[in-house]
Design brief:
The complex is a heterodimer of chains A (about 110) and B (about 800). Chain A has about 110 residues and is mainly beta. Chain A has one helix at about 100-109, and strands spanning about 5-10, 15-20, 25-30, 35-40, 55, 60, 70, 85, 90, 95-100. Chain A is built from one helix and ten strands; from the N terminus they run E-E-E-E-E-E-E-E-E-E-H. In chain A, the strands form three sheets. A four-stranded antiparallel sheet of chain A has the order 2-3-4-8. By secondary structure, chain B is α/β, with parallel strands linked by helices. Chain B has six domains: about 5-110 and about 240-300, FAD/NAD(P)-binding domain; about 115-235, 3-Layer(bba) Sandwich (FAD/NAD(P)-binding domain); about 325-395, Enolase-like, domain 1 (2-Layer Sandwich), CATH 3.30.390.30; about 405-495 and about 510-540, BFD-like [2Fe-2S]-binding domain (Arc Repressor Mutant, subunit A, Orthogonal Bundle), CATH 1.10.10; about 545-625, Sulfite Reductase Hemoprotein, domain 2; about 635-785, Sulfite Reductase Hemoprotein, domain 1 (2-Layer Sandwich), CATH 3.30.413.10. Chain B contains 28 helices and 39 strands. Classes of the chains: A mainly beta (about 110), B alpha/beta (about 800). Strand 2 (about 15-20) of chain A pairs parallel with strand 39 of chain B. The complex binds siroheme, flavin-adenine dinucleotide, iron/sulfur cluster and FE2/S2 (inorganic) cluster.
């Protein structure tokens, strides 16, 4: 693993998300009401909706375009045969760290 | 010959006896009914909702004067019975005597008064009947401090009701935790915490030494010499059977009037029913066993054989938001095993007590949905060995039964009890439904199910649905979503009555099953909170859909559209230039004139939004809220300024309305229009509020629409001045804000409440109109401002949090 600091936890709205740009595309970084963080591709497998603009509830996010619901732990869409790729992410002393290997590896391959 | 039946006490138990008699043998007895209270039977257990203001006395009357009259019951209300003469078989009332063949004593209980100095001071009230309730309501009107002595069911319901009415309430409880007869310590703690959150002070292990005051209560003195100032003292430390008449008459009385299983006292012509009796050494203080007694007594009086059997009872507290349930025996003991489940974040606690292979007790707090199921297992002595591991998770996880509540109800056996108060089982209800009872009211009337405390209403409705399938429409009773069991209307009502002022309070107090709602309920709750508590609660962008959070409409490719406000459809060269410049600068692919008299810049990148808004702000262009459940456009026509037919200044009025109302949030979008004459070029007759100017003034129409449904406006009122037209508009919109279900356009809401109801508040009641206008104005002091200007200052929030593409390139 290779953790990179992407910003302060407080830069992400509580029960909200921000996106980061990476070589594999935009990645959405979510913060739940209890300050858990999750990261996943910012593209809905349905019609490409930006998940970072969705409503974050519990440990799930609902796509802003047509309301598919994704479990942020697994990336699985509820009731659909589809999933989003998730990425290892954690917080440390109020900072948010993401594993950069997964974000670069794929584009090189 | 018809026999003379005299009944002393028109309470819940005797009321049920009379019903049974009238149903099965209306001519068997000539009934005379005495009641010390100056009224007939009402649902005493609903006094607490009356105290808290959720219900009125009229709502809880079970038998009114007409009912007694039409069934030939002679009523002597407001008259105490003072003596029973068993030798002459005569009753002495305050106003004269009545002979009897059979006599029923149904005098209920008297509140227990602790024998301390000062107990008789004015301002010391017990909690038993409507007069007590009204006395408390009256005392609470003056505000001030209340001390409730007793932290059991009655005391806490009184405390909650008084707190709801604005009093500063302290509860004194002798024991270590609240409701110790029904709850264990953990549940008692959660209950205490919830009550404290409402501002109620709780003192346990508090013993009252005296009540102080000159000619009115002034304070309560505790054993540890602490003095608590009090304008009102409610004594709710317990009840004892009202046995004075029976005692004097020489009947056998222990703690209560002793009866056998046929409800007969030691005198074969005298019977007792209700809280005044004692059976096998037991007293009764909840309605379920009393109703059972009433049925047995009716049978006895009609010469049918029947016998009363004591069954377990379950308790709930009727303080909305304090969800507790307890049943059976939950004391610890050798050979007993506990299963405990806690969810601290939701304030949920559940404990099951098992002895051998049987469930013998259950205590639950915070989530009591499975209470009746556990209660069934306790009563039936079901062998639970097979499901021990998953028992605590309730019926949903047992034997492959589905989590879907409907299938769970469908799977219940016919003898499963649905209505605990009245002891009505599923089979009885299903029979009634199959026999033609097609809605809740009919089921209630025929079976009594859900007619007492009402907690089983949801179950009865599910039975209706299971039995009738598509023929049954759950009328407005759908819960908001899977996160809670309450309807939108209930949630709105409870947010107001319980003064819930934060999302957390709503989740906790109204028993949300999820951590913080879902995309269906959270935006609704966010709106209800901001509409009801404009100063205390602020709009939460994270509880809004993307358009309202970003203040722009998201497009299918993830870009946004920008629609600046053009007041009343009027613009000028400077604004048009700024729009053209912005379109150039940010490479806007499409510029379109909207159906709402303004210009849409479509295809703007999220990152550019704050910069574009800042540019538009410079010439005074602000958000058009083309994205919001709030005021959209006010369409106008050119009116008297230019048009040869114009009668009033339609453009001016439209602009005024838009400037007053912009920025306001509403349950769904709100569109206005003002046309200068009945030719109606601004299409005012299909708007949420549409005003048509005429020679004599203004015709104000409401509840129109031209979206998925086409609705013509209905006339709210005709007025002569512009001022009135504006006030009517604001009052109407505020009434809509305060009452409508989230995502109901005004036309849907008006269809539910009726235009007459709206008129009576907005048009006829001038005080209410003024209040509504003032409430709208108060809210606008917070929301009448440009969200674009605010967000433009935080442009960094619209940029990616980090750009890792650069690092990866290294
Ligand atoms: C831009 C505009 C179409 C246009 O190019 O003219 C428009 C565009 C949208 N309308 Fe509309 N409506 C527009 C005028 C109308 C009108 C005509 C009017 O207002 O005079 C109507 C019918 C009148 C009415 O509302 O009664 C209209 C009835 C709807 C409805 C159906 C509402 C209903 O209650 O039935 C929706 C769906 C909704 O709100 O749930 C809708 C929803 C939408 C949304 C917001 C769909 C969405 O959620 O993304 C569209 C956003 C497009 C975008 O990306 O910006 N739009 N929409 C018009 C903006 C007017 C403005 O200046 O604000
Ligand atoms: C505020 C409150 C909340 C409650 N909540 C619940 C609950 O949630 N669930 C539950 O199961 N139970 C609850 N109860 C208890 C329930 O109300 C009683 O168990 C029930 O009302 C008792 O019925 P009863 O007919 O025996 O007596 P009552 O209903 O008390 O009726 C007795 C009547 O007899 C009259 N009377 C007495 N003496 C005389 C006389 N000498 N001459 C003429 N009339 C006389 C009295 O005025 C009274 O009207 C609650 C009670 C109260 C006060
Ligand atoms: S009618 Fe309105 S909602 Fe439908 S496509 Fe056109 S703009 Fe979009
Ligand atoms: S694009 Fe996400 S649900 Fe359609």
């Amino acid at each position: 693993m290779s953790w990179i600091d992407i910003g302060a936890l407080d830069d992400i709205p509580l029960r909200g998300a921000r996106k980061i740009k990476t070589d594999v595309g935009c990645v959405a970084v979510f913060r739940t009401d209890t300050d858990e963080v999750f990261a996943a591709m910012d593209r809905c497998p349905h019609k490409g909706g930006p998940l970072s603009e969705g409503i974050v509830h519990g440990q799930s996010v609902t796509c802003p375009l047509h309301s598919w619901v994704f479990d942020l732990n697994t990336g699985q869409a509820r009731g659909e045969d589809a999933a989003i790729t998730t990425f290892p992410i954690r917080t440390e002393a109020g900072r948010v760290l993401i594993d950069s290997l997964q974000l670069t590896g794929r584009s090189a391959a | 010959m018809t026999q003379k039946l005299v009944i002393i006490g028109a309470g819940m138990a005797s009321g049920r006896v009379i019903e049974h008699l009238i149903e099965t043998a209306p001519d068997a007895y000539d009934i005379t009914l005495f009641n010390a209270e100056a009224r007939g039977n009402y649902n005493r257990i609903m006094l607490s909702p009356v105290l808290s203001g959720e219900k009125t006395y009229a709502d809880i009357v079970t038998h009114d004067d007409d009912w007694y009259k039409s069934h030939g019951v002679t009523c002597r209300f407001g008259e105490h019975v003072v003596r029973i003469d068993r030798d002459r078989k005569i009753i002495e009332g305050q106003n004269g005597t009545v002979p009897y063949d059979k006599l029923v004593i149904a005098t209920g209980s008297a509140p227990f008064i602790i024998p301390v100095p000062g107990k008789d001071l004015p301002g010391v009230i017990t909690y038993r009947d409507l007069d007590d309730t009204n006395a408390m309501i009256k005392a609470a009107d003056k505000g001030g401090k209340a001390v409730v002595i007793g932290g059991g069911l009655l005391g806490l319901e009184a405390a909650a009701g008084l707190a709801e009415r604005g009093m500063e309430v302290t509860v004194l409880h002798l024991m270590g935790h609240l409701m110790e007869r029904q709850l264990d310590e953990a549940a008692g703690y959660l209950l205490r915490r919830d009550l404290e959150k409402r501002g109620i002070t709780i003192k346990t292990q508090a013993s009252t030494k005296a009540i102080l005051g000159q000619d009115q209560v002034e304070a309560v003195l505790l054993a540890d010499d602490e003095t608590l100032p009090a304008d009102l003292v409610v004594m709710a430390v317990g009840i004892r059977p009202e046995t004075r008449l029976a005692n004097d008459a020489g009947l056998e009385v222990a703690r209560g009037i002793e009866v056998d299983a046929q409800m007969q006292t030691s005198d074969p012509d005298i019977f007792a029913v209700g809280e005044c009796l004692e059976f096998n050494g037991q007293l009764f203080g909840l309605v379920a066993p009393l109703y059972e007694q009433a049925k047995v007594l009716a049978h006895t009086l009609l010469g049918k054989s029947d016998a009363f059997i004591v069954r377990d009872t379950a308790t709930k507290l009727k303080v909305t938001g304090c969800d507790l349930f307890s049943a059976g025996d939950f004391a610890e003991g050798a050979g007993r095993e506990d299963i405990v489940f806690r969810d601290p974040s939701r304030g949920v606690y559940k404990r099951l007590v098992i002895e051998g292979d049987r469930l013998i007790g259950a205590v639950m707090y915070g989530d009591t949905a499975d209470g009746n199921w556990f209660f069934g297992l306790i009563k039936d002595g079901t062998d639970i060995d097979d499901m021990r591991d998953t028992l605590i998770f309730g019926p949903a996880l047992q034997g492959g039964a589905s989590v879907d509540p409907l299938s769970a109800v469908a799977a219940l056996p016919p003898e499963a009890e649905i209505c605990g108060c009245n002891g009505i089982c599923k089979g009885t209800i299903v029979n009634a439904i199959q026999g033609g009872a097609a809605d809740l009211g009919a089921v209630r009337a025929q079976t009594k199910a859900s007619a007492s405390c009402g907690t089983c209403t949801g179950l009865v409705e599910q039975l209706l649905q299971v039995t009738l399938g598509d023929d049954f429409q759950m009328p407005n009773a759908q819960p908001i979503c899977g996160c809670c069991d309450l309807t939108h209307e209930d949630v709105r009502r409870l947010i107001k009555s319980q003064e819930l002022k934060s999302q957390e309070a709503v989740w906790q107090e109204l028993g949300w099953k999820t951590r913080n709602g879902c995309p269906s309920c959270r935006p609704a709750v966010n709106f209800y909170l901001l509409a009801d508590w404009p100063l205390e609660y602020r709009d939460d962008p994270q509880s809004r859909f993307v358009n309202e959070r970003k203040h722009a409409n998201i497009q299918k490719d993830g870009t946004f559209s920008v629609v600046p406000r053009m007041w009343g459809g009027i613009t000028n060269p400077a604004e048009l230039r700024a729009i053209a410049d912005a379109a150039d600068k940010y490479n806007v692919p499409t510029v379109k004139v909207t159906g709402g008299q303004r210009i849409d810049l479509l295809g703007v990148k999220g990152e550019d939004l704050p910069h574009m808004w800042a540019d538009l702000n410079k010439v005074g262009l602000v958000s058009g809220h083309a994205y919001s459940k709030g005021l959209r456009t006010v369409k106008t026509c050119v009116g008297t300024d230019h048009c040869r037919f114009g009668t009033q200044d339609s453009t001016g009025l439209g602009i005024k309305l838009e400037q007053i109302m912009w920025g306001s949030w509403t349950p769904h979008k709100v569109k206005l229009a003002v046309s200068g004459c009945p030719r109606n070029c601004a299409e005012a007759t299909c708007k949420d509020v549409g005003i048509i100017c005429v020679d004599s003034g203004y015709q104000v129409g409401v509840a129109g629409a031209a979206g998925m449904d086409l609705k013509e406006t209905q006339r709210l009122a005709d007025v002569t001045t512009e001022e009135e037209a504006i006030d009517l508009t604001l009052a109407f919109v505020q009434l809509y804000r305060e009452n409508a279900k989230y995502l109901d356009r005004p036309y849907k809401w008006v269809a539910k409440v009726g235009l007459d109801w709206v008129k009576s508040r907005v048009v006829d009641d001038l005080d209410e109109r003024a209040r509504l206008v003032a409430a709208f104005e108060l809210s606008q002091t917070i929301y009448r401002k440009d969200p674009w200007a605010e967000h433009a200052e935080e442009a960094q929030k619209f940029q990616p949090l980090a750009d890792l593409t650069l690092e990866a390139a290294e």
